Amino acid sequence: MCMGIAMAWSELPAGLIERHALERRAHDRGGEREVRFLYRDRSPRLPIWRDGRLQIVRWGNRDGRSRFLPGTGWTWQATIEEGAWRNLDAQPVDIPANLALERGVWFRVTQGLRGLLVPDEHGAAVVYVICEPASHYYRVMTRSSRMPLLIEERI
Amino acid sequence: MIEYETAVGHLDADCFYVSAERVRDAFLRDKPVGVLGNQGACVIAKSYEMKAAGVATGVPIWEALVKCPDGIYVKRDFRWYEVLSRAMLELMRVVSPQVEYYSIDEFFFQASVPRGGSFQKLAESIRDLIWERVKVPVTVGIARTRTLAKLISDAAKPFGALAVLDREAETKLLADRPVTEITGIAGRRAKRLAVWNIATCLDLARADRRLVRSLLTASGETLWWELNGDPAQPIHTQRPAHKALSRGGSFGETTDDPTVLHAWLVRNLERLIEELEYHAVLAGRLTVWVSYKNGQVGVGQTSLTVPSDRFDMLLDAARPCLRNAWVPRVAATRMHLIAEHLTPRAEAPLGLFDRPDPRLETLARVKRAVNARHGRFVLRSAATLPLASIYKDVANGYDICDVRGKICF
Question: How many Å apart are CA B14 and CA B106, to the nearest integer?
């Protein structure tokens, strides 16, 4: 499924860190600072590439702020292909990440995850992580039956 | 003419799989990293940072997570590790006239310096050369024998270089190392020695040779000679012929489904046949070994009337073995298929009733040709269909045992 991601501090623009108060999401791993974006955060957020710029947007609709978006943080790739998001002005986006988290396992991702960006009824951007059925390796490693769709990579 | 002094060297890559991952991924440097094997179930290599958190090699990932929650886990890639391993081997063959490819990350070699030269400097130069050219940190030990050289490189880790040829320094080193640090002494053998108050390497070196032989057989006596500075184990520049070939491993996810177990048997058999064909030998005996989650082990064994490497004949022999090794309704965790009594194909006897079958031999040839051209396992038995997800993962197409030419696993 993917319960969070981490990005190296050095890969995030200073202005973005300040604007979104990312300091409180900072952690140290092996002497290098990183920012963790976790679904369990009070206000879950994810970085996305949009129009060539890195932005921080809401991750899913767990808090029910939107009345018509699904109250989750993920969507199946098959659901997208079936056209379930067609009328919501949804667009695919890339979620940059150095690491992803699933059931306590931090695993390396080289570019990031695929996401689906949709506007809520107030026009605010909300991103969902796109999932696919877990590979055998991923299922053994994390005991999860769903895995995030990675950018040009499959584990 | 220059006169040379010779000794034995041992090169051991430091946390090799992790170091290999760091060669191509700088992000992983200085971080706690674990390489996962057994389809993602176990940590098969860890960085020193992860080791410091208490994670041992071979532990299940769920144990590792408790000890090192910030650890980063990566999937093993034996194709890449082999590339770096062979790059190191190539460099070692330039440095030394005799090199043994002991394992994917360890080499023994003849160390030579001009009379009066420094073995210490040689050890340092080899370590630095590998680092400069391959970017893998290694430790080099040089001593009078293989066993001493390995003990020295273990003591000098990580990124160390140490030559110990002086008797006094050798004695000190042996006194500081528990006897279990010698390859080949663990568990029961260590207990047998403990009864005689043999706890350190020096205790073993100073023990009566006949006592050591009676406790540890001839292989123990060889270690005794080696510890006392008499080379008793040669450097093998070529791998000696295999006495047995085997294929198998962990399932990752346990299974008690006989169809899935049969699929694993067929997968392991197809891999084993590749190996038999590569070494041009025929199997005279087959063993199927299955281990179960509750600790049980099942074994089935059969001798073939006529040694063979043919899929149909070996499968006919392996099926009853699996039936013997099968424990119904108990989840199995791993399987190994072992071929023994190997006969070189050229010397194989012909059976009276098992005539060559041109149709099946043509089929085997076509299978080999298709797989050689389009990828390993592209054409395989339909009995492996329950393992579609295993075949889909390219990482499963190449394992540590597929790295050929090394002496040890």
Answer: 10
